[in-house]
Amino acid sequence: MAPELEQFDPIGEIYLALGKKDEPYFRLVNEFYAGVEKNEILRPLYPEDLQMPKEHLALFLIQRTGGPQTYSLNRGHPRMRARHMPFKIATKERDAWIDEMTVALNAVPEFASHKAALMEFFEGFATFLINSPD
Length: 134
Hints:
Layout: H1 14-17, H2 23-38, H3 51-64, H4 70-75, H5 80-84, H6 91-106, H7 115-128
Helix pairs in contact: 2-3, 2-6, 6-7
């Protein structure tokens, strides 16, 4: 009987590939939230002060791409679907989120060689968070 194969995680090694640097993630998140601030679909979903959401997203992305587990140490299990349940997320919100993340990803050159894998992750993850038909 053949040993079980581990499922390949295309984004699980990005943090290492970027030299274990947090800075590109914080730039990505700052770019993303600059778009959110101007986006009439997304802005109402966020608190007035975006500092905590920025930190949470950066730490989550660092952890998810193979970096330190700081997000979980500070906030517990990510439980992203449960954390986002209070907000109406339909296809319109998902698409707006993807649009802003795409712009942000394009603005941070360190992620260029990982863009396809990250976009696949972001698209699947954003779809997973949909909790409303409209």
